[in-house]
Amino acid sequence: MSSTYMSVRDKRIKSAMARQETPTDEPNEAQVEGRSKCQVVLEILDHIGDKWTVMVVGALAQETLRFNAIMRAVEGISHRMLTLTLRSLERDGLVKRTAYPTIPPKVEYELTELGRSLIVPLSSLGDWAMHHRVAIETAQQQFDAGCNRAERTR
Fold it and tell me: Which of 81, 92, 101, 110 is the most exposed place for a label (fewest CB within 10 A)?
């Protein structure tokens, strides 16, 4: 994703960070360092927390794959989105692209050691999501029902 793209979540976090500052005081070194660390974390999470990135890493977790095999493994991804995702993962050092000088060209993708280090955290996050899925769906239904009642009373 481009650095100019800012998700709603990022805007909320930046807004919350801005509210914590005192406008009359100069920020101290710890505040500046904390903000830059936060920004680094946000940028990295923006890349690795992307829906397609998670699915591509999951597909490559088992074996080295060619482009079309990844397309088949990651249901719903377009050719362009897979290209952009793989390019971004390669740029971040998470995926290694190997092109063989054959006709037709053969290109394989595999996770680097850094990319493989994502498997356990992503798996844990997936386990958490499955474990709490029902509670989240219940909360969403309750919230939506409350919003619908509030809209009808206007």
Answer: 101
pLDDT digits (tens, 9 = 90+) for 84-103: 999 999 999 999 999 999 99
Contact 54, 94 (CB under 8 A): no
Q: What would the two tokens of residue 45 be?
A: 């999470």
Tokens representing 78 are 């377009």
- HEC profile for 88-116? HHHHCCCEEEEEECCCCCEEEEEECHHHH
Rounded to an integer, the average pLDDT of 6-22 is 53
- The CA distance from 53 to 34, in Å, is 27
- Angle, vertex CA 106, rays to CA 104 and CA 109, nearest 5: 155
Cα–Cα distance measured from residue 45 to residue 143, given in angstroms and rounded to the nearest whole number: 27
Please check whether residue 84 is in contact with residue 68, taking contact to mean a CB–CB distance below 8 angstroms: no
Give one word for 76, left, alpha or beta, with left for phi > 0 and alpha for psi -120 to 50: left
